[in-house]
């Protein structure tokens, strides 16, 4: 196959990639199984699934986001596991990534933030505002706003991150909620990824049991 034909073959999926990237935001896929009781003053505590995370400053940051979301849902924070109605267990991580190669067509793309935006926009943002959301599981790759010649080939690393959240009733250990949020991104920075995964997890919480939904947490508004 000639080089021009090879480039055309690679350009077709790249064009689809560019179209999917038009809906900018942090895309996540969320699966939830739940039997959560309606909020009636039940209390909770948040714990790390892994022993090495317990008491850590990084985990405390993510636990605080979960606590604030649960309080917003109508539950209350308990002073200890012994006095809590249920225990929330968190686990999170990101893989080592895999290489992805795409062909980038010429022209200009306007996705802002230098072509790859900073997706850190938790529900309780810098000003305590609730962010909107919309559905979508688009390939999270953005192109530079500068134009390039047709057939330019990019190579970059794709990372898959996850957040697992389980809720069990303290009295008998009964499982009330089992949720997993996953995302693909070009960053493996957990302090950026985890707050967005928490945001996705609590979108329409607790959700329909057994349903997997595709949610995109939008980027912060310009000037916000």
Description:
The protein is α+β, with helices and mostly antiparallel strands and 224 residues long. The chain has one domain (3-217). The protein has helices at residues 3-20, 57-73, 190-201, and strands at 26-34, 43-48, 76-77, 86-94, 98-104, 134-135, 152-169, 175-185, 211-217. Strand 7 (152-169) and strand 8 form a beta hairpin. The longest helix has 18 residues, at 3-20. The radius of gyration is 20 Å and the shape is elongated. Residues 1-23 and 107-149 have low confidence and may be disordered.
Q: Which helices and strands, and how do they pair?
A:
Elements: H1 3-20, E1 26-34, E2 43-48, H2 57-73, E3 76-77, E4 86-94, E5 98-104, E6 134-135, E7 152-169, E8 175-185, H3 190-201, E9 211-217
Parallel strand pairs: 2-3, 2-4
Antiparallel strand pairs: 1-8, 1-9, 4-7, 5-7, 6-9, 7-8
Short description, anyone?
With 224 residues, the chain is an alpha+beta fold. 21% of the residues lie in helices and 32% in strands.
């Amino acid at each position: 196959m000639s080089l021009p034909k090879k480039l055309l073959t690679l350009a077709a999926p790249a064009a689809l990639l560019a179209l999917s990237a038009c809906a900018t935001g942090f895309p996540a896929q969320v699966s939830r199984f739940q039997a959560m009781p309606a909020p009636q003053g039940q209390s909770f505590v948040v714990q790390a699934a892994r022993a090495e995370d317990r008491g850590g400053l990084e985990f405390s940051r993510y636990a605080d986001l979960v606590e604030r979301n649960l309080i917003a849902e109508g539950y209350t924070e308990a002073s200890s596991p012994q006095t809590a109605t249920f225990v929330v267990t968190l686990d999170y991580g990101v893989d080592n990534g895999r290489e992805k190669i795409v062909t980038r067509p010429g022209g200009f793309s306007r996705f802002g933030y230098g072509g790859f935006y900073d997706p850190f926009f938790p529900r309780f943002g810098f000003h305590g505002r609730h962010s909107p959301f919309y559905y979508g599981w688009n390939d999270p790759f953005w192109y530079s706003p500068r134009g390039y010649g047709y057939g330019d080939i990019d190579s970059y690393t794709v990372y898959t991150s996850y957040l697992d959240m389980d809720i069990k009733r303290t009295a008998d250990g009964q499982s009330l909620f089992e949720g997993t949020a996953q995302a693909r991104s070009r960053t493996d920075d957990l302090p950026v990824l985890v707050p967005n995964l928490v945001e996705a997890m609590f979108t329409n919480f607790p959700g329909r049991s057994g349903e997997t939904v595709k949610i995109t947490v939008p980027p912060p508004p310009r000037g916000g």
